[in-house]
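Q: For a teaching session next week I want to show students how multiple molecules come together into a single three-dimensional assembly. I've collected the sequence lines for a complex. Could you give me the predicted structure tokens for the whole thing so I can convert them for display?
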Amino acid sequence: MSTPKNSFAFGMIASALAATLALGAGVAMAADGPLRGNVRVVIGSSSTGGDTYQNSSIVVDKLAEKLGVRMKVDAVGVSAAYRALDRDPRGNTLMIFHDQSYLGNLYGVEGYEDPFENYIIGPTIAINPGNAYLVPKDSPYQTLDDIIEAVGNGTTVRVAIQPGGVSEIGYTALKNAIRIEHPGKEDNLVAVNTGSQADKNQLLFDDQADLINGSVQANEQYTRLPEDDQKAMRFVWLTARNDTIQQAPESGLGETDRETLLQYVEPNVSVTMGDEDFTFDKEFFFLYNKDMDPAIVEQIDATLEEIYAEGEIQEEQKKSFFIPDFMPSDEALAHLKEKASRYEDIIDSLKK
Amino acid sequence: MDILASLDFSFFLLAALGTLVGIIFGAIPGMTATMAVAVCLPLTYALGLEHGLALLLGLYVGGISGGMVPAVLLNIPGTPSSITTTFDGYPMAQKGEGERALKVCIVASLVGGLISAAVLFLFAPMLADFSIKFSYVEKFLIILLALTVIASLSSNMLVGVFSGVIGIWLSLIGTYSLSDGGNGKTRLMFDFLEPYLVDGFALLPVLIGIFGISTILLEAEKGVKGGLSGQSLKVGKEGHFSLGMFKGRLTNLVRSSFIGTFVGMLPGVGGSAASVLAYTQEKNLAKDSSQMGKGAPQGLIASESANNALTGGALIPLLSLGIPGDSTTAVLIGAFTLQGIQVGPLFIPENSATWYVMMVALVFANFVMFFLMFFAIKHIAKVVLVPKYILYPIIVMMCVVGAYAINYGIMFDVWTLLIFGVVGYLVQKIGLEVAPLIIGFILGGSAEVYFVKSLESFGTYSIFFTKSPIAMVLWGLIAASVIFAIVMEYKKRAQHRLEAAQ
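A: Of course. Below is the structure for the complete assembly, covering every listed component.
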């Protein structure tokens, strides 16, 4: 009988597993503020390759170090993140997400409650200035203006987006601009609803879309391919504010420098909202359980203030092509509410 | 010189450690390669890119391979891609050939892993260009081809197809997710279930429930006799593994490795489709496939070489398009973004040092996997000697823990596990077939997405036939697969009649 051997094997497996998990944990120092114990930071994206995870990791690492609390980012996705946050008013579960939280609600997507009503809005931490629109390199449209003109003249232009949020807002704004400049023609701009960046790219390769939503980070290399490559693309529009891109490192991203990127933002590319140009900065911020101790809100605000005052985190964020953007909770709330109401107007103006 | 500087002792140590931990993750039902990579991802921050990648690639290779252990010994697929390993592995283990089955799996895994690594190294950019020729339509057809295995896998074709359809129906419960371009509305459920079923039933708890828990329930029904879980281990020449077992199976081995690599490189088709497809092809093309599903090594070879070949395959679009080929590489991409490195069509030419280092890690991890498992398997295989009344409670406990952990602490996943354990038990009691049902469940979701997206994009059903030469070839394969299954069914019936007449 070899049962002892087997329990030995089980023991081995268990201890190896424990060792692995412990390896990742590290030793936490004793914390003395209201935030203590283990803190789980859930994010509204289930991807560990995306900007939310990357951004959250940078901030949470610094925060954990400064607070002496053990913190971990968990890429659980929107609905799971909200559920985790709802369950925990103690402050051991925090959430980081971006404009999708209120845009999803404005677009009426199931599972998106009004974040301003249901959660405490925490501080903003950074902007991803990379939200972009691209055409194939051999596209007949040289600029976004060409597209607006073409649609105004009755040509159908298909735009690949992921519906219900950040990916759609630029499309909505473009449609709104066409409605203003060429009333009645906006229906010639057609959304092709799809999912991941891979799917959007694929639609462009297959000639099933004329314009796609993408990002500087995910698509920059495609813009450097020779024109005869089926995969080659060209930026026509970055939705970020001119000021935001101005803060990016001069070298830009990959081989595309800041100067080049600035060609694709306002005022060089104009998507009108009537009295001003539409812009969209994708901003990341904390969300807390409605009943969380206000002392924790203050503690995180104060700690982040310190971290940002030291200046190191900005370098790290810029290295990853994020624009540092710290606003304490109350300021962040006012700012995001104002932002949301601006986009609500555009979304509403297209509802018939 | 850059490359040599990265390849220090700690590099290889990390790759080996990653492989070991990966195998453990893969072997525990409910824990997957994806999870192993996700758990260790933050570590790569401190390790730096090259060393971090060594660890993660080790975890990836180990995690995919580890799934074979519970698949063979306990009839529980440790990872979704080892599902077809259970078909022949478990019957072999029941005959006392667990060790032999596992060794076949290990050799097949090694070959699959190495072939795919070679393909990755030699043809990555070229194949990436080929992979983008597969649009929604072709991807749907690939999945349809994999689904045809249902016909040849069932012992009674009508019942099998019916079970498969039930599986597909189960997979559609939930939402057509916005992140797939759907409408995000819940369907096929009562209102009160919405909070739980928004994302549908999670794949792994369903798999483990239907295979693992239901097997244990069936055993429990027989009552505890204090016996051993396996009959007895075969000793002597008969039960032993030798490389001679691969004689006449080289075509299968190589074909399955290529199928695995190929499916891996198609983003969105999913890992489990690779082993299912390889298994189907072996079933259709082998001279004698009558023993498949009853404990034939050829089934193991097809399944395991294909699922390990996934690793190299899934890295092809990751490194030459910036698009992950499966769920694990989707997590792996985080190692690059955490370091501020963008993967895309110019990644390989611009980061050749990293590229070579990754290849070294990948090949090394495959060898480490081979040696670790080949020599440890003798002991691991003895798990079937543990009395059932000790073994089964431990398995149930591990399954529950795994199901709870799979989505980071969702209690409903544990209920899913138990519900599908009972479902799996009942399904077998009323004579439905489990394997077709589960294959329908695994592939149903993506079949829907690609089917609907094809229609949305092209607006006509005829596009499925006329889209491209690739689509036509795929239809040819689908037709061949279905016809083959029908012919086999007739032969089987004729034989039965003959036997009955005698």
